[in-house]
C-alpha cells in the first residue's frame, strides 16, 4: 500500500501573501511548493508570445498542454528562457485572470499541477487548490486580506523590483481581477467547505505561517480514525 503524500493548500485572492506564506511553510517542513498561478501566468505569456487569440479556448488549452517549462532553484524557464520576473508583470497577471475561466485550459493544467505531489509533501497555492486540484488535502487554508492592504503590498513589491506602480491603478485592477476570479462559473475563488479562513491583514507573515504549522502538527498528533 502506498503512503498518502500530504498536501497543504493555500488559496486566496491576488497579493493576499499566499506565495510567501506557502514558501515559508514548505521550507519549515522540507516540502515542495506548487505556485499554480505561475502556470496560468506562463500560459498567458506563451499566448502573448505566440500571438494566440485569448478567446480561442482550444488554442489556449493547447498552449498550456504543450508548455515547455522547467522550475529550477528559484528559476522558471519557458522554452529555455528565464521568465520568473516577466510573468510577475501586471499585464501578464491580468491576461492570466482573463484566460483562467476557460474549462479546457483548466483541464490541461490539472495533471501538471497534480504531478507536483511528491514525497515528503507539498504546499500548493492558488485559487482552486483545496476545491478542485487537491480536494483530499490534509490542511486547507483560505487566506484573505483587504484590498487596500493587498494593493499596497503589490505596489511595494513592484517598486522594490524597479517596476513603476500606481496605487490607484493597482487597486482598480485588483478589484476587477477579484470579481472575475470569484464570479467565474468554473473553479471560482471560493473557500473549500473544510478550509480554515485566515485573515492576513491582521496577522504578520510569521503568525500566519505559525498558525498553518500548528494546524498540521495537530493533524499529525490526531490518531487516525479506524473508519468503522
Ligand atoms: O496567483 P496569481 O496572481 O499568480 O494568479 C494569476 C491568475 O491566474 C489569477 O488571477 C487567476 C489564475 N489562477 C487560477 O485561475 N487558478 C489558480 N489555481 C491560480 C491562478
Give your account of this protein's structure.
The mean pLDDT is 92. The chain contains nine helices and eight strands. The two termini are 20 Å apart. It is α/β, with parallel strands linked by helices. Strand 3 (69-72) and strand 4 form a beta hairpin. Bound molecules: 2'-deoxycytidine-5'-monophosphate. 2'-deoxycytidine-5'-monophosphate is lined by residues 14, 36-37, 40-41, 93, 96-97, 100, 126-128, 177, 181.
Distance between the termini: 20 Å
Q: Can you count the helices?
A: 9
What string gives the helices and strands in order?
A: EHEHHEEEHHEHEHHEH
| Cα-atom radius of gyration | 17 Å
* Average pLDDT reading: 92
**Quaternary structure state of the chains depicted:** single chain
CATH superfamily: P-loop containing nucleotide triphosphate hydrolases
Number of strands: 8
Fraction in beta strands: 5-15%
Helix content: 40-55%
Task: Enumerate the distinct ligands.
Answer: 2'-deoxycytidine-5'-monophosphate
CATH topology: Rossmann fold
Main sheet specs: 5 strands, parallel
The CATH architecture classification is 3-Layer(aba) Sandwich
Q: Report low-confidence residues grouped into runs of 5 or more.
A: none
Amino acid at each position: 500500500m502506498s503512503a498518502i503524500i500530504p498536501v497543504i493548500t493555500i488559496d486566496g485572492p491576488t497579493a493576499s501573501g499566499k506565495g510567501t506564506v506557502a514558501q515559508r511553510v514548505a521550507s519549515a517542513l522540507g516540502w515542495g511548493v506548487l505556485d499554480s498561478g505561475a502556470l496560468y501566468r506562463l500560459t498567458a505569456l506563451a499566448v502573448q508570445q505566440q500571438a494566440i487569440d485569448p478567446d480561442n479556448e482550444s488554442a489556449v488549452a493547447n498552449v498550456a498542454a504543450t508548455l515547455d517549462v522547467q522550475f529550477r532553484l528559484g528559476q522558471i524557464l519557458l522554452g529555455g528562457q528565464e521568465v520568473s520576473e516577466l510573468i510577475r508583470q501586471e499585464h501578464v497577471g491580468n491576461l492570466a485572470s482573463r484566460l483562467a475561466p476557460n474549462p479546457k485550459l483548466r483541464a490541461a493544467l490539472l495533471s501538471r499541477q497534480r504531478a507536483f505531489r511528491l514525497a515528503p509533501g507539498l504546499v500548493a497555492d492558488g485559487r482552486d487548490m483545496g476545491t478542485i486540484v487537491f480536494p483530499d488535502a490534509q490542511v486547507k487554508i483560505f487566506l484573505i486580506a483587504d484590498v487596500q492592504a493587498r494593493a499596497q503590498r503589490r505596489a511595494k513589491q513592484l517598486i522594490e523590483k524597479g517596476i513603476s506602480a500606481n496605487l490607484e491603478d493597482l487597486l482598480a485592477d485588483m478589484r476587477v481581477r477579484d470579481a472575475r476570479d470569484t464570479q467565474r462559473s468554473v473553479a471560482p475563488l471560493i473557500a473549500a467547505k473544510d478550509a480554515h479562513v485566515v485573515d492576513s491583514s491582521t496577522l504578520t507573515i510569521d503568525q500566519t505561517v505559525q498558525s498553518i504549522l500548528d494546524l498540521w502538527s495537530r493533524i499529525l498528533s490526531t490518531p487516525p480514525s479506524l473508519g468503522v
